[in-house]
Structures
1.
Amino acid sequence: MPSTGVAPMTRRHILHLDFDAFFASVEEILDPSLKGKPIIVGAPPERRGVVASASYSARAFGVRSAMPTAQALRLCPQAIILPPRHKIYGEYSARMMAILSEYTPLVEPLSLDEAFLDVTGCKARWGSPEELAHQLQERLAAELGLTASIGLASNKLVAKIASGLEKPRGFVVVPHGREAEFLAPLPAEKLWGVGEVTAGSLHEMGISTIGQLAELPAAQLEARFGRRGRDLHRQARGIDDSPVVVEREEKSLSRETTFAQDVGDPQVLRKKLLVLSESVARQLRRRGLRGRTVKLKLRYSDFKTLTRQVTMGTPTDLEQVIFDQAARLLDKAWDRATQVRLIGVGVTKFDTEESQLSLFEGAGDGRIEKLRRLSQSVDRIRQKYGDEAIRRG
Ligand SMILES: [Mg+2]
């Protein structure tokens, strides 16, 4: 047999762990009288919030994440609405990640309550991947009081889909070599990157399950979806070589707000843009990041959403620069006839601090340096006396 010169990839054991109804479950721990009741964590309907998390007894009424709270309350009028407490959820998340990293250094957090673990090399110490998974579920329940669902497979794609299938407290194992068979009956929307638009195109092609998708020739998918068609073809057959990545680089920083009532007044939008720009800039400085690209996000009253961005020659962490760019994008993008429901500002394309130093040394841009010194002293005052200490006039 001719050698390809490439060592065959070792069989991997990838575990995806996802807490069940995380925010709502933490609220139940903090107030045991809530246990078993329909709980919705999210902003109330008068602030036009959406459901961030719902307990299983609320889900029994059809309540789902990302649903407007108003709609959730129509389905389940007796639901108890609680405002999200992200700081506390963050503490639970940190404790979970600490427990996970006792089993393997290869932990990739996906969100506050989800992570991938590569447990391929863990057998000697923790037993088979299945045994390890059971231990994990039991430890998280005993130490944090939270239940988690786990998917175990040869890759991330299949493990993540598996963990979602039997919630809560699910445990789904997909044996090596059975990935395609496992995926075949599931709806195509379960695959990464198959959103509403792609799903719509697939339905037009008569495709609803992953199995049907897997039968299409790669060339046909490529002709229809370009390069992504090839990925779809591989994914549909359960192939995913992506590694568990330990350090997740922060790729963007953004803040957005949904107005209590749709806004048509440009002054109100500019004011909100300034507040959001300040918040983004402060976070950038706190993390020692500067970015070259400023993004604006607008959602209109009809939910149509658009984003616009501009890339600058010099990376920034200054609210004035971010605001100027965002305001310019707003002027260009917004027709002023349509009411705005949500506005957001983000910064991406980060440079590290070191690579920026040389750029500023001797650059002689007095205005920028002055703004930076001002921002830094404002940060120091805020750190000492809190965010409310300084308000822009
Ligand atoms: Mg979850």
2.
Amino acid sequence: MELHKIQQLINQDNLVKFYQSKAWRDLRTAALKRDNYECQECKRQGRVEPAQNVHHIKEVKQFPQLALILDNLEAICINCHNKEHKRLEKYIRKKKPKFLNEERW
Ligand SMILES: [Zn+2]
Ligand SMILES: [Zn+2]
């Protein structure tokens, strides 16, 4: 999937299409294999947990050019993934006034 296509999906708020693409599914499998299907966040805390998800370290919406870069991915368990995204949401919400301004265009 090409960058302009990913950018288009972001603009249309339709990233679901990205996550359904073969390019993503292949890369996702590669990331899980590389990380031995173990949650990397739990691993940093000294625990071993099976990973079910693959997380973009730098968010697709902010860094679409990194959406299909293996180095930007890590295997993660559902628990850690939810925690990570709550943390990111808070961070994005704080910056919301800026986004509202941009929406006027
Ligand atoms: Zn975990
Ligand atoms: Zn994620």
